[in-house]
Amino acid sequence: MRKRLFSFSVAIFALLVQAVWSQTPIHVGGGSYASYVPLAKSKTADHGGCQAYQMEHRKLYLPDSLLSRLGTPDGSRQGSLALPTNDWWTYALVNEWTGKIWTYPGWVEATQDGVDIGFPTYWEPTGCEVKWDTPLRVSFTNTATGRKAKFEQALVDAWSDFSMSFIMQDGDAWVRVTCMHGSPLVWFEASGITMTTSNPDAAKYAVFEQANQLSVALLTDGLDAAAFTPYAFRIPRKTTMTYAYDANSSSLSTTFHVDQPVLMGFLPHHYYANHQLPFTNYQYLTPRGTMKVAQGNDFTFTYPVHSFLPFFPAPMEWDDAFSATRMTELNADYSKRGSFGGDTYWGGKGLTQMAHYMTFALQMGDTATFRMAK
Description:
Elements: H1 2-21, E1 26-28, E2 31-33, H2 39-42, H3 52-56, H4 64-67, E3 101-102, E4 107-111, E5 114-118, E6 122-123, E7 130-131, E8 136-142, E9 147-148, E10 155-160, E11 163-170, E12 173-180, E13 185-191, E14 193-198, E15 205-210, E16 213-218, H5 225-228, E17 239-246, E18 251-266, H6 268-271, E19 283-284, E20 291-304, H7 324-337, H8 344-363, H9 367-373
Antiparallel strand pairs: 1-2, 3-4, 4-5, 5-8, 6-7, 8-9, 8-14, 10-11, 11-12, 12-13, 13-16, 15-16, 17-18, 18-20, 19-20
Helix pairs in contact: 7-8, 7-9, 8-9
């Protein structure tokens, strides 16, 4: 009797698993395609297989008002909201807490204990990374209970081209944090929450407070708290980056727009371009070069466009620096061991590299490696 019950339970479990992982045809016109790549077809001894299905079904840390606007992976519901899957803050979309959101010149991280703001100011001994001393922490108390706020997660609640915000809730009480790429300011808004800061270095961090709002500024030479005062509570709600190509002059112009005046930092590839911006003397350290600060809400840079080949052809055999045999070995080696990372950021890098090697193999007539990479 027990064996029969066990066999029946196993059969029911198998049916449930099959139902969960079964394919759902997605109909397009007179044809259709599978809802995800069959894992058994893509998984090999050398690769973990296609992770698209798991990626599409990961939990998303968004408020219900945004979740309801998303489509479903199987196409049964069309969505009205698109999610950026490879942005500078995408980690926060698929994790309980934000991880370090690198806003440049600093970073912001939400945890169950509060929100930390780090300010890198020096290079580590190897010169590979910039480092920081003790970060500033913003802590939260539920005003109604008088106790530490019990946040269980951080939810991404808004974003635009180069800004985003996340919200943490404790019942009806909440805190919203707004970040902008290139901004030395981080903005906090709250309801039913008392915000306090632990400032490890008043020479590096300035804190501004008013009713239900707080902001933290990263100070640098010449850019003191007084200089930040006019911008302390100008919270950016919408940022856009647009571009225009002029074929006659063979130039490309990009414009960064913020819905109100701000202090915004730019990297060398910005300020070495043609521009009419009144850059200040304020500067910050970043791993991508010195960041210079400009004031305003529209920032336009123009670059000359020099045509280039999107892909180099296979080298000629007569080139002494090129060995077809060695190239074939490298192609095959990467095709066997290449990985696709654990998320869309690193997965995108791996996918691009694999596509390159696939193309290399195709150009060289190495069909076996081409198929493996494909």
